Amino acid sequence: MTAFESMEASLREMEVSAKEQIEACNSPEALEEVRVEVLGRKGKLAQLSKNMGTLTHEQRGSVGKLLNQVKGVLETAFDAQNQRFATAVLQARLEREWVDLTLPSRGPRRGSLHPVTLIQTEIEDVFRSLGFTVLDGPEVETEYHNFDALNIPPHHPARDMQDTFWMTNGTLLRTHTSPVQVRGMKQLGPPLRMIAPGRVFRNEEVDASHEHTFYQLEGMMIDRDVSVAHLIYFMKTLLSEVFKRDVTVRLRPGYFPFVEPGFELDIQCLICGGSGCPVCKQSGWVELLPCGLVHPNVLRLSGINPEEWNGFAFGLGLTRLAMMRYGIDDIRHLLGGDLRFLRQF
Q1: Which CATH number fits domain 115-342: 3.40.50.720, 3.30.930.10, 3.40.50.10610, 3.40.109.10?
Q2: Helices 3-24 & 57-96, crossing angle to 10 degrees?
Q3: Where do the structural domains in the chain lie, given as residue ranges?
Q4: What is the tens place of the pLDDT at every residue in 195-213?
């Protein structure tokens, strides 16, 4: 067999063999290996073309034509197999990610109210039914409304920088919603029944039961012959409406400059049932409601004659109440912004 005949036979044989290899490939990676082996710079086709120097001028033309023909056939076969792989990948993806476009859309996901908002709205409805007015006031307060008008003297610890966020202009972020009571007494006068829900700020160390920003609800009733019995009645009514069940409470003496006498109304921890946990600091009780009869000085500073009028006042921690109501074991969840937590309500 001449060199010319040998080259022609080798090209025909390589074409058949390469086609079989291409069809046997089961992945794009395997196909690429075959392509490099046959059509690469050092592949079989390149090696055969090096032998063309042994041919005559006429033979080189004939073999060159055949070589280009084989190369074109194999490139077409490679492209076809690549396309089959791409089609299979696309089909698998379409089956995996199939969507029925005729179905109606799910629409936007509905939001929900914050647990503190739910508690606040419920308490407002309770007190409105008892004849109370809901008032609001500024969160940036004057020292007079936040302290002086509430009979809190300059030397009182509540004025310490560790408790209060002071502004550079002498104002402060209110530490309680009691300033709204002062404004309500001045603007509306007695007889008066009012509550003041809102956000307050304390420069406190954050833990499971303390936050620097939380929510309170202050309440006040000014009338003639108001007694501690009136205070206890309204507090029991409030708690029974909020918790929808009997809760264990205790009333103990407490000192607050704006009430005399003053009391602390504690609720048995509903997280641990009184056995002790981080929320109640292992005591079994949660301070919920400081209260008492309004101090005569507070009435005088608001232009009300304490010889003619008296009343009671209380401060309720809305944030802690929400924790007790919904079994939330860490106050930091309420300001955390975690939608998974908020969607539970």
Answers
A1: 3.30.930.10
A2: 0
A3: 3-96, 115-342
A4: 999 999 988 888 877 788 8
